[in-house]
Description:
By secondary structure, the chain is an alpha+beta fold. It has a single domain, classed as Roll (Ubiquitin-like (UB roll)). The protein is built from 2 helices and 5 strands. The longest helix has 7 residues, at 49-55. The radius of gyration is 13 Å and the shape is globular. Bound molecules: FE2/S2 (inorganic) cluster.
Amino acid sequence: MAGKNPYMKETAPDPPKTAYRIRFLPMDETVEVDPANLPDRVAGHPGSILQTALDAGISIGYACGGVCACSTCHIIVQEGVESIPDGTDSEVDMLEKAPGLQLDSRLACQAVPDGSCDLVVEVPSWNRNLVQEDHG
Ligand code: FES
């Protein structure tokens, strides 16, 4: 999969043009996003919060591979949501199936910040990818 749902005709938002940071909670890890060096990983839109998280080793579930066909990448944007274009109808429809939905909930694979400000993003406990967690 290449970060695109073949059944949907919506286009990806533009990737960020300026550098910014995302602070992920509750792990309290801050990741710098350099628009000239976006992650190569194929999961979600280019420059999406999901790509940034996975590239930094922060585990977020992404059962559908980042094509807006599940809600396992549900995140809550505590700060900076204004730098993310509004969700598409597909994202909103899928988000309605997510547990713990809040006003600033988004799908990490679809949310592409424009870089105009830093973000604080909470990863709900049930969406952290258990496969990658340390059980030792
Ligand atoms: S990974 Fe499935 S909707 Fe984001």
